[in-house]
Known about the structure:
Blueprint: H1 3-25, H2 30-49, H3 62-76, H4 87-91, H5 98-116, H6 121-155, E1 164-166, H7 167-184, E2 187-194, H8 200-210, E3 217-219, E4 224-231, H9 234-247, E5 253-258, H10 269-274
Parallel strand pairs: 1-3
Antiparallel strand pairs: 2-4, 2-5, 3-4
Helix pairs in contact: 1-2, 2-3, 3-5, 5-6
Amino acid sequence: MQSKYKIRLLRANLFAAACVLAFWALTAPPAASLALWLSVGWLFVTALLLDFSHRRSKGLPWQLLAGMLLLGLIATAPERHSILIWAWAAMFMLPQNRWIAVFNVTTAFLSWLLISSFLSLAESLLLLAALTILGILSITRACQLIDINGSIRQRLRLIPGLNLWAGEQLLKDLSREQTRSEREAIYAEVFLIQVKRHQLWSAAQKLCSLTYSFENVYRLDSHTLATLTLSHSPKEASQRRKLLCAALPEKQRYQHMPLMDMELSTITLETLTSLLPQQLGEAND
């Protein structure tokens, strides 16, 4: 199934959940109504802005806001919204940072405390045991998704439609390109560019548009890009480097290395990034 269809289905589910909460808010007390309408607004905005991308957001994790809204809904009217306690199991199925998971575990426990005051001791303990089991199963599933997504990112393009690949792919391509450049007498070199974190994706798209269709661009880390350029001579390669640097952000570090001079058995992503000069704008020409 293509990603666009999955996004449409997820967007439809978010709109449906927002409509259910809006209907629920019509008969809710003032405090509970406020929390419900905030949740409705968040669901609508999330559904409208939802889009497929391989990029990870560097801002505040959205699971934090979802957890706070869920706790707020339960806290405003625990006797009315007690059924929402089961939503925590779904929250733990989402891949999230460790500190966000700790926050959600804490808020889920607070939600249980609020609801347990309306239950008997036996019912409270049974509810806690059920939530604990479901939470453990959900967290296990989330860990599996993180591992699967990590392996996918290592072999697929990072942005659909662009020749932008993970750094692991560069290590696989070096040997093949070295053999081909030796066989066909082509001058090949690895060109490294380091930019600021917020400039990485725009610089990567620009670099993809300036390189040939048979040349790939690689993301080594959150600051560093690399490309394997193929030219007829070192002089032509130098001219191409100048054109690429002129089109990229001004504040950058860059370095180039002839592919035939590299000892591939000792090359790792860390050794490549360590070759970048310490001062911005320096390179071997």
